[in-house]
Amino acid sequence: MPAIADTHIVNRERVQPTHANNYQSAHGGIVMKWMDEIGAMSAMRAARETCVTAQMSRVDFERPIPIGDTALVESYAYATGRTSVRVRIEVSREDPRTGETEQTTSAYATFVAISDGEPTAVPELTVKGEKCRELRDRALAEEPER
Questions:
Q1: C-alpha–C-alpha distance, residues 89 and 107, integer Å
Q2: What is the rounded distance in angstroms from the CA atom of residue 74 to the CA atom of residue 38?
Q3: What average pLDDT score do residues 89-115 get?
Q4: What CA–CA distances, in Å, run from 58 to 10, 19, 61, 66, 107?
Q5: Average pLDDT estimate for 47-68
Q6: Is 55 helix (H, G, I), strand (E, B) or coil?
Q7: CA–CA distance, 137 with 125 (Å, rounded to integer)
Q8: Collapsed DSSP state (helix, strand, coil) of residue 145
Q9: Which helix (H) or strand (E) segment is 135 a member of?
Q10: What is the pTM of this model?
Q11: Is residue 146 predicted with pLDDT exceeding 70?
């Protein structure tokens, strides 16, 4: 069975002018695309199958990511259903010169495991260690109603 730690992924994207909106910061749709891609990778690690997005809830854009900064996209699976994987996704802006970070965006997403075009069963997630327990418990406590 996969562990929560096995699903943890961190990715970086440098915000370029082609990613920007009229305010010279990352366009929300671009940020959501990065979140969806990294979230799906976490789900696939949990499911051990290809996963597709079923829903994304409560995407909160708290502050912008300026051109030239790095978008730090972090995700992990925290719960599974019969064929679904629930993933917490957080984005921070990172100053590439100092490494200073500040959270900018967060969301919860549900992905469905697919095999031969049909939903397929996923294994349960295991919790190994206090850090993983804290991540899971925090995500479950803050998760919006589905």
A1: 5
A2: 7
A3: 97
A4: 21, 22, 9, 22, 6
A5: 95
A6: strand
A7: 13
A8: coil
A9: helix 130-142
A10: 0.93
A11: no
Residue carrying structure tokens 């994207």: 13
Are residues 20 and 67 in contact, defined by beta-carbon separation less than 8 angstroms? Answer: yes
What rounded mean pLDDT belongs to the chain?
95
Encode pLDDT of 1-36 as tens digits. 899 999 999 999 999 999 999 999 999 999 999 999
Structure tokens belonging to residue 34:
């990065």
Is 108:60 a contact under the CB 8 Å cutoff? Answer: no
Q: What is the dihedral of CA 61, 26, 19, 17, to 10 degrees?
A: 170
The two three-digit tokens of residue 119, written as one number: 């939903």
- How big is the chain, counted in residues? 146
pLDDT tens digit string along 75-87?
999 999 999 999 9
Task: Report pLDDT for 57.
Answer: 86
Q: Are 3 and 128 in contact (CB under 8 A)?
A: yes
Structure tokens at 65: 């990511």
Q: Residue 7: how many CB atoms within 10 A of its CB?
A: 25
Contact 75, 35 (CB under 8 A): yes
